Amino acid sequence: MEKLSKGLEIIHKLSAGTHWPISVTPIVTEPDAVQGFWPAGFSSGTVSANIKYNNRKDLVLLVADRPSSAAALFTLNRCCAAPITLSRQHLVHSDSSMRAIVCNSGNANAATGEKGMSDACAMAEAVAQELAIRPEEVLVASTGVIGQLLPMEKVLFGIASLPSTMRRASIIEAAQAIMTTDTFPKFFTLELQLSGGPVRLSGIAKGSGMICPNMATMLAFLATDAAIAPSLLQTALSRANRHSFNAITVDGDTSTNDMVAILASGHGARIRADSNDYALFCEALEALMIFLAKLIVIDGEGATKLVGITVKGASDDRDAELAARTIAQSSLVKTALHGEDANWGRIIAAAGRSGAIFNQEELELYFNELPILKPGFVADFSEEAASEILAKDSYTITLHLGSGPGEATIWSCDLSKEYIDINGSYRS
Q1: 112 is catalytic
Q2: Of residues 75, 112, 181, 217, which has the active-site annotation?
Q3: How many whole angstroms separate alpha carbon 398 and alpha carbon 380?
Q4: Distance of alpha carbon 340 from alpha carbon 318, whole angstroms
């Protein structure tokens, strides 16, 4: 209950401070909400299969009541987990039409060889049998410790129990069931007004450590009742991912199990290519994904600050992203952020080794709106004013490389001693 209370407080605060697109209405779900969290056509259920811990929700099933358009993105780590390989195959074999997503926490089913692949297949087959659908219509995900085999007797028994738990409003338990080192559940929903009527976009996510661009140790499962072709949905997801889950970092490590997937049931308004409705849908999806991505960074292992690293004035967006990513992942920068030390030299040093091309004499640096560094290396700022900003739990650092059109933002956090404590004993 403590984790849920913490999550609701953070979600409320972040939502209130978010500049949502004018076409969307944010909906903050409360624990006692009776209205459905999931869009029309979807329900979810959870059980405790005791995969790693006893009496903790660790299996979740998201089900669509009809074949639904599907799109997904996966980790770029070449040591990818068995469920990643299987889900990629299922998207191809089912022509991107899905009926369910099943996920377990507590065990990544990664680096488990042929047995791991067989176990992932068994999970899809068990779900298919319970729902009377084809195994290829099931996406499979896992998260947890790498290199350990799944306790399949427990997993399969849990899957058999899932259908009886299905509810449209069961968001709290669904978000909790995919957590590992997360300290609070992550979820949100938006209502979007389109020319053909309202549609809903909802999502849950998990992630706290092993978080790096090209996604992270993160999972995100999204759903919408919009009627949209799989190809359009995949394009929208890929675009939104670039500025959300691909624009966050906690520790610079990319996981074996990253997945973001979205299903569209088709119960709501139809969205066509090259329409204003599609532009609005893409905007809303990106807003939802950025919101969930920020929740992941806020919950970074041992993190106390959410920091947006924005680079402007680069020769192009690629150079801006190179500089922003390098600054955001720098251990020296991140420890300075934790110590609330306005050590601007670490920031420009990180930019200098990023590979971005710029003239160092033109650099300008700001903490929120406070000028820290002016062209020609003039740093006559107030240490007290800088410390006041760095003491906040959320702020932005903006670095101008010059006068070019390139711009990028990466969301990062500070690096604390607690990160070492958490990861030094993760398997125990």
Answers
A1: no
A2: 217
A3: 17
A4: 29
